[in-house]
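Repro:
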Amino acid sequence: MFKAVLFDLDETLLDRTNSLKDFFRDQALRFSCRYELGTEAALERFLELDARGRVSKFDVYAQLIGEQIRSPLPSAEDLAKDYENNFWRYAKPFDGMETIREALKAHGAKLGIITNGQTHIQLRSLLALNLDPYADTYLISEQAGLRKPDAAIFLRACNNLSANPSDCLFVGDSPEADIKGANAVGMKTVWFDNGATWPENAAYTPDWKIQQLSELLDVFAAQGLETHDQ
């Protein structure tokens, strides 16, 4: 069995898309946003512009507002600041997160988190999911000064956990940042695809692929860890 299992945060432990949907709908009510095509259509456009968190929220809101020709809306700055201050309140985990966490604890395997993003936003989400008491290490790219898929951030996490990369499993949704990055340092990998698209002709592959977080129990069992649903 692995000595440590490390996770990405967004779209791996944090159900970011559904959390973001709840936040956006509530924000539209709180700010009285009258989107031309309606809130639901604006939400779908927001998610498209957001590109799974790869685009700054100021730029996303600026583009979205710019497309609303006849509808007066709050400023992109105000909406982006509201996201920074309040998105964490809507954070929800994927089903099975607590079961996985307890399975690792029962076996004595360490739990780590490596996530790209701004420190204050990612830390708030991590705390909202109550992961802080259970994580043996977590690295946030802004604070660490490193970003996945840089090998250095994976190796730093291994060092924090006193584990060799070959004794670690990494679980994430991004083919390049997570799977390519973790594979490059010798970790075994699980791709939680979660709506992501695998790049054509990629020179790297995950060791396992899952469509639900709870399927990690099957991966653990294959490595000699007997688990039971909590």
